[in-house]
Design a protein that fits this description.
Number of helices: 2
Order of helices and strands: HEEEEEEEEEH
Organism: Lysobacter brunescens
Strand content: 15-25%
Radius of gyration: 29 Å
Membrane topology: Single-pass membrane protein
Structural class: alpha+beta
Protein name: Type II secretion system protein H
Family: Belongs to the GSP H family.
Largest sheet: 5 strands, antiparallel
Subcellular location: Cell inner membrane
Length: about 190
């Protein structure tokens, strides 16, 4: 008996994914995103906080420099080009202006030295209760007692910091006290 000829049929190749392949890929993606997103969110919040601290430091330095160079009183306060808001929440921005008439309010004709826009959503800056302005005198010192700013972001009160401005103009950084940190984060 003779053997039958063997037929070589073309092999079928599978294309696409099976449902199991898709479920595994989605599970791996969910795990990676679950780990990566909080880290990225915290990194962005930290960068925004550092940027806000730098902007405040630059504004205070500009105010002190202008006061000493021009021999005039210079005010830094929460507010916009229209003037000081009078509150302790600096999150909506702040201004630096030369206070020609020494009334601590920005009037017509008083030169705006610097204006900082509102902080990004999720970042807060609060000043000392009862100190809505920092006033630099012609000798570069600022009036009143030390001013403390609490800087916070969406990472929570444990990551908030306080910026303490001494009357001589030195700005130092420290961990925020619990109550102001919680109040700052609550305002976000």
């Amino acid at each position: 008996m003779s053997a039958l000829p063997r037929l070589d049929l073309p092999r079928r190749t599978q294309r696409g994914f099976t449902l199991l392949d898709l479920l595994i890929a989605v599970t791996i993606l969910a795990l990676v995103l679950g780990i990566a997103i909080p880290g990225v969110t915290h990194a962005v919040a930290r960068v925004q906080s550092v940027s806000a601290r730098s902007a405040l430091t630059a504004a205070l330095f500009d105010a002190q420099r202008n006061a000493t160079v021009l021999g005039r009183q210079v005010v830094v306060c929460a507010g916009d080009a229209g003037g000081c808001s009078g509150g302790i929440d600096w999150s909506d921005g702040w201004i630096v202006f030369i206070d020609e008439n020494r009334d601590r309010q920005r009037g017509p004709g008083e030169r705006l030295v610097r204006q900082e826009p509102a902080l990004p959503r999720g970042v807060g800056l609060h000043g000392t209760l009862g100190r809505s302005r920092v006033i630099y005198l012609a000798n570069g010192s600022n009036t009143g007692s030390n001013t403390t700013f609490t800087l916070c972001d969406r990472r929570g009160p444990q990551d908030a910091e306080r910026l303490i401005l001494a009357n001589g103009g030195r700005l130092r950084r420290d961990r925020a006290e619990a109550a102001p940190a919680v109040a700052c984060v609550a305002g976000l």
